[in-house]
């Protein structure tokens, strides 16, 4: 049985929940409240020395970093692949995913925003500009790449690693009120993806550790 | 023939140069001076919409993002692999690489330091603390993981994707005078890797676009 160490609002954890859902893999949640520093306990640090989420455990294997976890899932459970077969196509999907995972999200996660506030005395309007700026720079490029390569999803007609990263980043943009008018293709694809159970069940508000005031009930199955 | 769009001092370009060198793949340099914004010309943006380096071109394929480029090289030129064969091992190597590529480097590259200075009015001592902080947080974890899994190199006895990311990050740490005393294993492995031609020829000071005052001649072959 897989255990996913995560947090409802961590967008990196959200990516992995989508990948697990798309592949229909059962797993157990282990939650670590990032606001109270639960990811820095000795027990968790012994497992995952960065003290970040997500980390995946399965039968002795311990894997951190969301992209590494999703690649591992794709190698171990090759059905419903997250990457196309052709190396050139795989490279495009990986580079889309990494625009989000390397050039947007690392600049905007909680530990970085806390450093801006506490060490650089950034005001809230400056933090808000900082967040919006990196989302926009990344999405400017991603909108172009997705227009070049999309079908129903970011690359072709099947959900991929790119969508596992895009949809949580759209969620974060909405959470921080970053305008998305300039990215109609990204929004269209996110809206379509969110109709799939693999994406909708991974949403932060559907997670067992989400606070009641955010909780969204699962839609009844029709 | 492969063209690598890069810049001598870009550590993400440096990673790809190492991967190309380890696989003994010939390539042509196309340099874009990041200090003067040469990576934002219309011609380069048409090729690579993020306007960042590195981007690799080969026979119609255009790939951005250093991790995506290195995975593509490994799939297209499988000799001298950059990843082990077992999925659990591959995941460990990828997560080591991503500690550098997702959690250290994106916070310290030129566009981010410029934003700290210009938009948050950060003083130089604050910028220096910012740089050191993310290197130390990442290396604290990487030192532990590398001790668990290393042989001669970061994972086992062969250079891997993890070393392609580690060695340029050690270079950056030295450049910014970040102390490395707490990371003897990482330094030991970097010193060993730098004895290999694949690593030494990729060094910033050996690149044709490095300014003369930094240039280091190639060692004569013995």
Task: Tell me what you see in this structure.
Chains A, B: InterPro entries: Glutathione-S-Trfase_C-like, Glutathione-S-Trfase_C_sf, Glutathione_S-Trfase, Glutathione_S-Trfase_N, GST_Zeta, GST_Zeta_C, GST_Zeta_N, Thioredoxin-like_sf. Chains A, B: Its EC number is 5.2.1.2. Chains A, B: It is an enzyme of class 5 (isomerase). Chains A, B: This is Maleylacetoacetate isomerase. The structure is a homodimer of 222-residue chains. In chain A, 52% of the residues lie in helices and 8% in strands. By secondary structure, chain A is an alpha+beta fold. Chain A has two domains: 85 residues, Glutaredoxin; 110 residues, Glutathione S-transferase Yfyf (Class Pi), Chain A, domain 2 (Up-down Bundle). In chain A, strands 2-1-3-4 form a four-stranded mixed beta sheet, covered by helices on one side. The model of chain A has no long low-confidence stretch (mean pLDDT 95). At the A-B interface, strand 4, helix 3, helix 4, helix 6 and helix 7 of A face strand 4, helix 3, helix 4, helix 6 and helix 7 of B.
Topology:
2 copies of one chain form a homodimer.
Chain A: E1 2-6, H1 11-22, E2 27-31, H2 42-47, E3 55-58, E4 61-64, H3 66-76, H4 87-103, H5 105-108, H6 110-119, H7 124-149, H8 161-175, H9 184-193, H10 197-200
Parallel strand pairs in A: 1-2
Antiparallel strand pairs in A: 1-3, 3-4
